[in-house]
Amino acid sequence: MIASRRLILTRALSGPTGAEPHADLPLTQSLAPQWHRVHWPLIAIEPVTDAATVQGLQQAWQDWPQWQAVMWVSAAAAQHFFSHRPQGQAWSSVQAWCTGPGTAKALLNLGVPAACLVHPKLGDPNWDSEALWQLVQPTLRPGVPVLRVRGREHRATEVQGQGRDWLSDQLQAMNVPVHSVAAYERRAPTWSGAQREQALHALTDGSVWWFTSSQAVEHLRGLLPHAKATQLTQARAVVTHARIAQACLDWGWGHVVSSPPDEASVLKSIESFA
After folding, report:
1. Domain residues for 88?
2. Same-domain status, 215 and 254
3. Quick one: which of 79, 80, 6, 13 has its CA closest to 42?
4. Residues 228 and 246 placed together within one structural domain of the fold
């Protein structure tokens, strides 16, 4: 009899619909029969509600003709931004940038023309700002602004949002103005004592955690402040970027496998723990 293994998905519920974010990834359907999939979101997503930030989102739509491109950091950013789209707003020729196929699919579902999408493809080794930069740099128009849509921490007041600014730095160095808006808020989930105990047990029972964000690792660390070194050294994770791997290692995780983000590579990395 084959022993059961558990794969823990940690990504946020992506947007107003609360759709399960991994449902459209064949790899989670293609795991060997002994794998049992569970979803423990480690980033909770909420809409922004303060007047200044909402006004900023509405203004971004009103200023639509001025943007040469709009860059979304996630599917949640796309879904929440589009919830403020004025009725009848035409897309025009604005480029839509993103760093992964999940966000690209969300944008297509929201009505963005496929011809306007620019993003790293499934076969590319990385889905990050650096990979996107290689695609967009040759077509940049200096002096024409780019809009960046991202999130911010829960109860923060920055209308522009918070996040990694590497791409913005590259754009500004090329004399491309960058305007940022926050479309949603991120926070750690609220867990009961029983959920925390279950998570502690999952550090040592052979479960494999799949992390796609270093913030998810930090939130788990905050939820489990009393995790012992002897537990962490048994913990297993598959991660899709070096920054995420470093967050796990800094916390003391003993088994961290870094994988390219494409489905076949992630599947192979997960099943390497079987």
Report:
1. 47-187
2. yes
3. 13
4. yes
Which stretches of the chain score pLDDT less than 50? 1-2, 15-24, 26, 157-163
Q: What is the DSSP letter of 115?
A: G
pLDDT in tens, 146-175: 999 999 887 554 444 444 588 999 999 999
Q: Could you tell me the pTM of the whole model?
A: 0.77
Short-list 126, 80, 95, 92, CA closest to 266: 126
> Shortest CA distance to 131 belongs to which of 176, 99, 95?
99
Half-sphere exposure of residue 110: CA atoms within 13 angstroms, side-chain side: 28
Is residue 59 located within the same domain as residue 37?
no
d(CA 186, CA 28): 25
Strands 69-72 and 5-9: unpaired
From 125, 155, 187, the end of a domain falls on 187
Give the pLDDT confidence of 171-197 residue by residue, as tens digits.
999 999 999 999 999 899 999 999 999
List the structure tokens of 12.
């946020």
Q: Specify whether 55 is located in the same domain as 182.
A: yes
Query: How far is the C-alpha of 203 from the C-alpha of 241, rounded, in Å?
Result: 21
Phi-psi region of 11 (alpha: psi -120 to 50; beta: other; left: phi over 0): beta
